[in-house]
């Protein structure tokens, strides 16, 4: 009985020592902690401009339903909306509208454009992206499948309600 009681006291003491030493040990910073602190302090490039258009307002300007195609909205936030374009459960492209107020460099690339789609300045980015600038809004189609070509991207850009988007303030 005395031996059993000593074991309980010893176990309680050891447990207390372990808890005390682990609770008082300073936390070792993780490899991302410093980067997180630095990026949290930055003001430029971090947040969307206050006057950027809400993403939900862009949804009505996306192409209307097309026979055989499905649009799945995947992202909607201030200044941006995106939908996946699918056919027979295969993702063909990503369709998006973004407000360039927060990213002036996105709009600047259109200043030297000689190409137009639906009367708006257009740019090709690599072999997979086509975009136009409608006032301050960038309409972009990004191929997700090799069968979805530059002419397909241009055709889908024309299906957006560009006239309505141009009137959006």
TrEMBL record:
Keywords: Signal. Residues 1-23 form the signal peptide. The keyword Signal applies. It comes from the Bacteria. This is Lipoprotein. It comes from Halotia branconii CENA392.
């Amino acid at each position: 009985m005395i031996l059993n009681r000593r074991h309980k006291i010893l176990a309680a003491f050891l447990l207390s020592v372990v808890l005390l030493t682990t609770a008082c040990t300073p936390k070792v910073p993780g490899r991302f902690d410093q980067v997180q602190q630095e990026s949290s302090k930055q003001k430029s490039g971090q947040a969307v401009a206050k006057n950027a258009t809400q993403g939900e307002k862009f949804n009505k300007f996306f192409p209307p339903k097309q026979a055989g195609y499905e649009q799945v909205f995947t992202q909607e936030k201030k200044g941006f909306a995106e939908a996946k374009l699918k056919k027979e459960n295969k993702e063909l492209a990503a369709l998006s509208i973004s407000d360039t107020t927060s990213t002036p460099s996105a709009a600047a690339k259109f200043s030297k454009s000689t190409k137009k789609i639906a009367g708006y300045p257009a740019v090709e980015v690599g072999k997979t992206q086509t975009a136009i600038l409608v006032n301050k809004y960038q309409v972009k189609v990004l191929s997700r499948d090799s069968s979805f070509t530059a002419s397909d991207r241009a055709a889908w850009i024309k299906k957006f309600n560009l006239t309505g988007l141009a009137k959006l303030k």
